Amino acid sequence: MTAPGNERRRESRLQLNLPVRVRGFEADGTSWEAVTATEDCSAAGAAFTLVQAVRTGQVLQLALPLPRSLRQHDHFEASYRVYALVRHVDRGEQISRIGVMFYGKAPPRGFDKNPAARFLLPSDVPAPIPDPASPAEAVAPKPPLAPEPELDPDPGGMRKHERYEIFVNFTLLEQDEFGVVLREEVTVAENISLGGARVMTALDFASGDVVLMEEVGGPFKTRAEVRQAFLGVDRIRRLNLMFLDGRQPEHLLRKR
Questions:
Q1: Conformation bin of residue 56: beta by default, left when phi > 0, alpha when psi is -120 to 50
Q2: Is the pLDDT of residue 12 over 80?
Q3: Are 139 and 163 in contact (CB under 8 A)?
Q4: Over the stretch 198-243, which tens digit does the pLDDT of each residue have?
Q5: pTM for this model (two decimals)
Q6: Residues 44, 68: contact at Cβ < 8 Å?
Q7: pLDDT given for residue 256 in this prediction
Q8: CATH number of the domain where residue 201 is located
Q9: Is residue 25 part of a domain?
Q10: Is the C-alpha dihedral spanning 40, 41, 47, 48 positive or negative?
Q11: 80 with 65: CB under 8 angstroms?
Q12: 107 lies in a domain?
């Protein structure tokens, strides 16, 4: 788990010991169920222990009596049923501590066809391994590709909205003119304002592209234009996005 000093969650977790029923899926399509207890919870996720082996990005179905104040749906149901993505696994000899991110009432797109699929964030995807160098390249290797610098999106100091270092989970979708989803990924916004955000991506979006942004487990949804795509010093691509449609994530900034 992330150490407290490196805490990047948008919402602090509460030490709540709640019974939770967990359902997971194997690669052959079979499912398993386990009953355990949470160690902590928030509106964004929870931590608990499991005997079953799970991997980062795996989808789990959860049912637990989460307090209403932490729910995104089913506020008056006895049990909060939510799909979750495994984000952290601390493996022990016989039992593992699992950290999950609540995804929502419905599973990620594609789950129905392959429940055992892994849905990874851009930071989970390892950098590509270069092809073995030819003898000529071994003699005279090319210099390594330097990360692209992030352009100053506000060189004149005229930005309308201040950006805040808030980490929010989003789904990015690319659609055609008929609304058909062409590509989709779950990602993280590293900073956000009323007018835009910076997100990580594993896809090859470019300046001028328009994507649909949906807050994972929250109400904010808007089209956004890619103002800049660049490679960070950690070798993860990032997008500077400008919100369209006149919608603003005021509820996210109120929680900072």
A1: beta
A2: no
A3: no
A4: 998 888 888 999 999 998 878 899 999 999 998 888 788 899 999 9
A5: 0.62
A6: no
A7: 57
A8: 2.40.10.220
A9: yes
A10: positive
A11: yes
A12: yes
